[in-house]
Write a structure and sequence with these properties.
Elements: E1 6-8, E2 14-16, H1 26-29, H2 57-60, E3 68-72, E4 76-78, E5 81-82, E6 89-90, E7 96-98, E8 105-109, E9 127-135, H3 142-149, E10 156-159, H4 176-186, E11 190-193, E12 198-201, H5 203-206, H6 217-232, H7 238-254, H8 260-263, E13 265-275, E14 280-289, H9 296-314, E15 319-320, E16 324-327, H10 333-338, E17 339-342
Helix pairs in contact: 7-9
Length: 353
């Protein structure tokens, strides 16, 4: 207890004033709160990080990227009134997270495994990132369902069924081929939909048991690479990211994708020389092989594609320089980094139908 401060009255006699609380008094050290008392005025993620993770380490250590978390509500922020993009409705006059109490999904963990635990670097991360699973019946068109099964829709990644159920024979006398047919017909196709990735507290994992989302390390690593590519991919002009890949795929398909001039090519890449990738002024196509050199006749086929690409680029005021050919094993790291891939699933070692 501190002594009361003393002052003098107009007659010069000492009087006691109100007691001054110590500097470390709980009331004076409390963080300011916002209107309504819902949290600190200057909140940051630092405020959500536990001081001691000891009691959580064992539970969190069981989880890894790609594991499935059942029965969670997907959420996203939406403004007041009707959300004209998603169709959601918010009856409050403020931005709020949308939560439908009747909607529950199984979600896949997108956070890196090293960030999930209660030891460094995970001890700096109080949240986990989740993406919802969707059944293929939710995909509107048959064409897109087929593309999803082939792994050709970038935001959909095949996972295990949430229930993990397997088809089993109920009659010992059934022929093996009949059972195989049943499995093919009843097989569940589920996908992680990476168009929505939302945060959840790691507390969500403490009292749950992890379920595997993928068949082993190779598939799990592939999922991690897809996530990494989603966030590190270059921002490209639509002509480069959409029109050019369509032009390339059509050219390869129309000219016979099994021919050596296409089968020998691992990838086509694009280098922007002037302007930016969003607003390019001049670019060059780079055709990469792996330990092989295209013949003059094979290069002549690619010259025909170059001419088609030039017509496409000219319509958008982009100049296309002479096509380059290179062995990927001799390509410099700098040249590789400055270029971006032109997507085409018919090049290189493909599974021919």
């Amino acid at each position: 207890m501190t002594e009361p401060e003393k002052s003098t009255d107009q007659n010069g006699e000492a009087t006691a004033s109100a007691e001054v609380p110590p500097a470390n008094d709980a009331e004076s050290s409390a963080k300011p709160v916002t209107e309504g008392g819902v949290g600190p005025e200057r909140w940051s993620i630092y405020d959500a990080v536990p001081d001691d993770w000891t009691e959580f380490r064992e539970s969190l250590g069981r989880w890894k990227q790609g594991d499935l978390v059942a029965d969670v509500p997907p959420t996203w922020l939406t403004g007041p009134g009707e959300d004209v993009i998603t169709g959601a409705s918010n009856d409050r006059p403020e931005i709020l997270p949308l939560i439908d109490p009747d909607v529950r999904v199984t979600a896949v963990i997108c956070t890196q495994t090293c960030d999930l635990g209660g030891t460094p670097p995970g001890s700096a991360q109080p949240f986990v990132l989740l993406a919802p699973l969707v059944h293929e019946s939710c995909i509107p068109t048959r064409a897109d369902r087929t593309l999803a099964r082939q792994g050709k829709i970038g935001h959909l990644v095949r996972t295990h069924s949430p229930a993990g159920e397997k088809v089993v024979a109920t009659d010992d006398t059934q022929a093996a081929e009949t059972i195989a047919d049943q499995i093919a017909e009843a097989e569940e196709f589920w996908y992680a939909d990476l168009r929505l990735i939302f945060p959840a507290s790691k507390a969500l994992l403490l009292d749950r048991d992890p379920a595997q989302g993928f068949d082993g390390e190779a598939d799990s690593l592939a999922f991690g690479e897809i996530l990494a590519q989603k966030f590190r991919r270059a921002a490209l002009n639509e002509v480069l990211s959409e029109d050019l890949p369509k032009e390339l795929r059509k050219f390869v398909k129309d000219n016979g994708h099994r021919k050596p001039c296409f089968a020998s090519v691992e990838q086509v890449r694009l280098i922007t020389h002037e302007g930016t990738r969003l607003l390019p002024a001049r670019a060059t196509l780079l055709v990469l092989t792996d330990g092989l050199a295209l013949t003059d006749d094979e290069r002549a086929v690619w010259t025909r594609f170059q001419k088609g690409a030039e017509r496409l680029f000219t319509r958008h005021n982009i100049r296309l320089g002479p096509m380059l050919h290179a062995d990927v094993n001799k390509l410099s790291a700098a040249r590789y980094r400055e270029s971006v891939p032109v997507r085409c699933d018919l090049l290189g070692s493909v599974n021919w139908p």
